[in-house]
Amino acid sequence: MSNPTRYLLFTLFFPLTLHSQYESGVNALKAQQYAEARAFFQKAGVKSPALEKFGLARYFAAKENPEFNLDSAYAYVLSGEQAYRKLEDRKKENLKEALKPDSPIRIKREIEKMCFNEAIERKNLQELDRLLSTIKNGPADQVGTATALRDQLAFEAAAAQNTMAGFDELLSKYGPSLRAT
């Protein structure tokens, strides 16, 4: 087989193979077959590390998954995004095709939204602080809600201390974003 023929076959079937591996992983997630889903995503990683990382981000973000872990999901989506940026344009297009109907940014935003919803639901000052420092450019409405809740919880903690030191710490740590509660 000549080199041009190999190249043609590779460019025609490479995206299909990636697409089928990723799609099989997504379908396995929907069927709650988590070990199979992970295996499909990892198999896709042999040819596309970025695709594997986006798949594993979805894997760890599946709520019914016994390995559900939003920190891992977010770490994988950031790693996938970084690998995606390093790809040549043609490979980026292949990856976008394999991810359809998803996209790298859609997967990232979906996981960010889940992170914010969970942190807001828990109403934990330290968790909200960590989230807001980690996801700086998240969905504006959720960043605003999380910031307001964090500020409220911080104010309540300072008020419970009822000391100048407590209020000084509140102002030094949250002064720029603090709102009247």
Short overview:
By secondary structure, the protein is mainly α. It has helices at 3-30, 34-44, 49-61, 70-85, 89-99, 104-122, 125-134, 140-161, 164-174. Helix content is 78%, strand content 0%.
Count of helix runs: 9
**Oligomer designation:** single chain
Radius of gyration: 21 Å
Helix-strand pattern: HHHHHHHHH
The fraction of residues assigned to DSSP E strands is under 5%
Separation of the first and last Cα atoms: 73 Å
Total beta strands = 0
Mean pLDDT across all amino acids: 84
Mass-distribution shape:
elongated
Helix content: over 70%
Main β-sheet, in a few words? none
Low-confidence stretches: 4-16
Q: Please identify the structural class as seen in this structure.
A: mainly alpha
Features:
elongated, mainly alpha, 0% strand, 181 residues
Characterize the structure shown.
The protein has 181 residues and is mainly α. 78% of the residues lie in helices and 0% in strands. The protein is built from 9 helices and no strands. It has helices at 3-30, 34-44, 49-61, 70-85, 89-99, 104-122, 125-134, 140-161, 164-174. Helix 1 (3-30) runs parallel beside helix 5 (89-99). The longest helix has 28 residues, at 3-30. The protein is elongated. The termini are far apart. Mean pLDDT is 84; it is low at 4-16.
How is this fold's topology laid out?
Blueprint: H1 3-30, H2 34-44, H3 49-61, H4 70-85, H5 89-99, H6 104-122, H7 125-134, H8 140-161, H9 164-174
Helix pairs in contact: 1-2, 1-3, 1-5, 2-3, 3-4, 3-6, 4-6, 6-8, 7-8, 8-9
